[in-house]
Amino acid sequence: MAFAEDLAAGPVARALLGERLVLWDAGGGRAGAALDRCPHRDGPLSQGWTCEGRIVCPYHGWEYLADGPVARIPQTPDLVRFPDRFAVRTVRVDVRDGVVWGCLDEPVRPAPIVPVAGPGWRFIREFDEEWASAPARLMENSFDPAHTVFVHRATFGDTSRPDVEVPTVTRTAYGMVIRSDLSVANPGFAQIITAEASAKTVRHTETQFHAPFLRVMRSTYPSGAVHQIITAATPVGDECLRLVQWAVRNDTEADAPADAVVAFDRRVTWEDQALLEAITVPYSDRLDANIHIKVDRPTVEMRRIYEEITQGSWAGLRPTDRGPLVDSDGDLHRSTLVT
Ligand code: FES
Ligand SMILES: [Fe+2]
Which ligand is in closest contact with the Cα of 47? Predict the structure, then answer.
């Protein structure tokens, strides 16, 4: 996943499940995406540039169309047709509402519908960065109400209320939705988010888990302020994720300057990052790999969904994709991962 606006400055290097990719602006609101490896001599296409929607390899200048075929080889200017095997290997990519969604194979599900700017709602770009943590670990953290009191004790954690409410968990076609009310501290710098003046307030959250690696969190405060954050944990590798996050709010720049909103979420997100990156045990989605208590219900349900995905029994899969989706090494088949 990437912000489409970043492609305007030139090709962008990304990684997905260990594959190095290049994304570029293919013109007309479309993006191109391919392995970051020119078929000629393995040149790094992400170091190249674009020309009329084509990606130009920086090594010998070959130009590729967004759907893969080579369109021009500068060393043979009279040739206009080239064998199919000269094509660069592309990957599936869609641009929607300013966000680029990629998938290495045919996606099992369409890209999710997520909050973006609209009447009464403004888009605030937040983060796009790599973390040394497992994508699923960040997802579990995102749905874990008990950690807020401790990890976020310097920002919004209410340390007088560690006995947080057990969230309700409801399965959906895309994964699940979790609802909870949480008592939160509301120091001065948080009041930009909550639009509340009291020292404490209550955050009502309704958070969607779009399996496998997307969170859509909608927090509503008694003031009526709604702070939505959309967080993707793009799987770069087993213990590496790319966090792409934006916020969508129902107020104005005059109510809450975007810089201050980002600064608050930056602080909170760094608290999570410091904790998660300090975990040295490889992530396991097995239920028996850890201990769970009642309040951990979202994590338990999430691991069940991961298990169902690997077994091919998850209801969110198309019927044609049902059945074991692991390869002979036990790795999840790539096509199950839309991000
Ligand atoms: S390696 Fe890309 S054109 Fe030669
Ligand atoms: Fe957190």
Answer: 1
Give the number of C-alpha atoms closer than 13 A to the C-alpha of residue 230, restricted to the C-beta side.
Answer: 19
**Average pLDDT of span 78-85:** 94
The CATH homologous superfamily for domain 2-103 is Rieske [2Fe-2S] iron-sulphur domain (2.102.10.10)
pLDDT at 317: 85
Distance 43 CA to ligand 2 centre (A): 40
**How many other β-carbons are positioned within 10 Å of the β-carbon of residue 309?**
24
Ligand 1 pocket check for 55: Cβ under 6 Å: no
pLDDT at residue 321 above 80?
no
- For residue 86 and ligand 1, the question of a CB distance below 6 A is answered with no
**At residue 338, does pLDDT exceed 50?**
no
Between CA 134 and CA 30 the distance in angstroms is 30
**60: Cβ below 6 Å to ligand 1?**
yes
**pLDDT-derived band at 322, boundaries 50, 70, 90:** low
- 59 in contact with ligand 1, CB cutoff 6 A: yes
Domain definitions of the chain by residue range: 2-103, 122-288
Query: Do you know the residue count of the chain?
Result: 339
CATH 3.40.50.150 fits 122-288, yes or no: no
Angle (CA) 144 145 149, round 5°? 120
Among 29-33, 45-49, 109-113, which is the least confidently predicted range?
Answer: 109-113
57 lines ligand 1 (CB under 6 A): yes
CA of 151 to the centre of ligand 2 (A): 7
Q: Which two tokens mark 231?
A: 């967080």
Decide: 48 in ligand 1 pocket, CB within 6 A: no
Helices (H), the chain: 135-142, 147-151, 191-194, 258-277, 297-311
- Whose tokens are 């989706």? That residue is 325
- If you take atom 3 of ligand 1, which residue's CA is the nearest one? 60
